[in-house]
């Protein structure tokens, strides 16, 4: 619905563009007028509903009615506004627009949460609000608004999951968290799943308390307890103890190590002048037509001068061999999807951007809160459907037959 131009001209009569904003600007006046009009309409509806209901036994027979108004100062996007809140005689009216004990419009809280999700510190948010809106927002107010998100985080972390996921990527980011007076660098693991319709979803966040298979058993048992019965392919970055833990929780799952991470690890051993040659030799391994050809290419590399010069490279591929070769069974469309954890790394880069401004977090919960908000703020980007999903889905449906979940 468009606003009548004559009405707008009337509102702007005798005013300049600079009079739109600020404490006494047109927007503040308009917010006050519209809010009070809406509150009046809410009260009228409330009174009408009460009149339609028969009074409870023993209650006064006199109909409820208006009983003046009281003033309340409310924080809005354009500053503070003093509203005349209408009252009823029985005191049963609780407005929806601005509840009895509410002092801020919901949109104001949303803006603070949005700034927090984009990595702004409490001090930066405080300065921004004071500069733009002329409002002093205390650090405790900002913390209270963002802390209210924790109930959402808890519900999200415990929500029921799908019975089966075609592909799940696992990767970690590092965050500094204070504990017992000392700051430690903690790993936060993120599970990014591909759903049967090709869209993506983050299944959860896990803060690493211990190393190896015990931690992974906890993560996988959490997924099982939330309803996951099967994962077709799990793509990981050489995570210690993960293959053994996933075999125990999901025996049919195919574990694929991230080839890109394995390559980076290999390149770290080679001198700059030999890196191109090493990359070419290893490409013959991971781009082979099948596992037998890949084995032959790795054997050729092991017998080369390059392998003799850098003896740590070939054994690193041999140690991970059973997790290297699964993707070689698939056509190019599927290979491009599962040979790297780039999908979850791209997501993690957005999270890192948000946490970068924090020196450290006071607790795991504080870090989880910011990461959750950062995920929500960028969800339109990372939830997009996988490219060529139709072709990938067809291949996975053939390879996994009745295990593939139909969207």
Notes on the structure:
Keywords: DNA recombination, DNA-binding, Transposable element, Transposition. Belongs to the transposase mutator family. Required for the transposition of the insertion element. GO terms for molecular function: DNA binding; transposase activity. This protein is α/β, with parallel strands linked by helices. The chain folds into three domains: about 1-105, no CATH class; about 105-150; about 165-405, no CATH class. About 50% of the residues lie in helices and about 15% in strands. It has 19 helices and seven strands. Strand 4 and strand 5 form a beta hairpin. Helix 9 runs antiparallel to helix 10 (about 275-285), helix 9 runs antiparallel to helix 13 and helix 10 packs antiparallel against helix 11 (about 290-300). The longest helix is centred in the N-terminal third of the chain and has 27 residues, at about 25-50. The two termini are about 40 Å apart.
How much helix is in the residues? Answer: 40-55%
Number of DSSP E strands:
7
User: Largest sheet, described in full?
Assistant: 5 strands, mixed
Total helix count?
19
Which parts are unreliable, with pLDDT below 50 for 5 consecutive residues or more?
none
Strand order of the largest sheet: 5-4-3-6-7
Compute the CA-based radius of gyration: 29 Å
Overall pLDDT confidence: 81
Helix/strand/pairing class, anyone?
A: alpha/beta
Order of H and E elements: HHEEHHHHEEEHEHEHHHHHHHHHHH
Function: Required for the transposition of the insertion element.
Biased composition (Polar residues): 61-78
Family: Belongs to the transposase mutator family.
Biased composition (Basic and acidic residues): 44-54
């Amino acid at each position: 619905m468009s606003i009548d131009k004559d009405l707008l001209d009337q509102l702007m009569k005798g005013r300049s563009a600079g009079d739109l904003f600020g404490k006494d600007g047109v927007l503040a006046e308009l917010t006050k007028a519209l809010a009070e009009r809406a509150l009046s309409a809410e009260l009228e509806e409330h009174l009408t509903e009460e009149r339609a209901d028969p009074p409870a036994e023993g209650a006064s027979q006199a109909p409820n009615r208006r009983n003046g108004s009281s003033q309340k100062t409310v924080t809005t996007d354009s500053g503070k506004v003093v509203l005349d809140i209408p009252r009823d005689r029985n005191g049963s009216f609780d407005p929806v627009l601005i509840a009895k004990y509410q002092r801020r419009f919901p949109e104001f809280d949303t803006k603070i949460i949005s700034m927090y999700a984009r990595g702004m510190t409490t001090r930066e948010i405080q300065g921004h609000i004071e500069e733009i809106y002329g409002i002093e927002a205390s650090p405790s107010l900002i913390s209270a608004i963002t802390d209210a998100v924790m109930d959402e985080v808890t519900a999200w972390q415990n929500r029921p999951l799908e019975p089966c996921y075609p592909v799940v990527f696992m990767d970690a980011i590092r965050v500094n968290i204070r504990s017992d007076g000392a700051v430690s660098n903690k790993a936060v693991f993120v599970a990014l799943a591909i759903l049967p319709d090709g869209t993506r979803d983050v299944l959860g966040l896990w803060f690493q308390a211990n190393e190896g298979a015990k931690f992974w058993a906890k993560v996988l048992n959490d997924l099982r307890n939330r309803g996951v019965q099967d994962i077709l392919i799990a793509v990981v970055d050489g995570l210690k103890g993960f293959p053994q833990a996933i075999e125990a929780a999901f025996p049919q799952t195919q574990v694929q190590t991230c080839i890109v991470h394995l390559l980076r690890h290999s390149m770290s051993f080679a001198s700059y002048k030999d890196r191109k040659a090493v990359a070419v030799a290893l490409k013959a391994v991971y781009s082979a037509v099948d596992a037998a050809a890949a084995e032959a290419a790795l054997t050729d590399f092991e017998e080369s001068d390059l392998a003799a010069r850098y003896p740590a490279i070939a054994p690193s591929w041999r140690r991970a061999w059973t997790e290297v070769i699964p993707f070689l069974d698939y056509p190019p469309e599927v290979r491009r999807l599962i040979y790297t954890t780039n999908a979850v790394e791209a997501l993690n880069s957005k999270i890192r951007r948000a946490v970068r401004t924090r020196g450290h977090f006071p607790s795991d919960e504080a870090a989880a809160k910011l990461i959750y908000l950062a995920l929500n703020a960028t969800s339109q980007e990372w939830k997009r459907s996988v490219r060529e999903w139709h072709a990938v889905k067809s291949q996975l449906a053939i390879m996994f037959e009745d295990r593939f979940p139909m969207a």
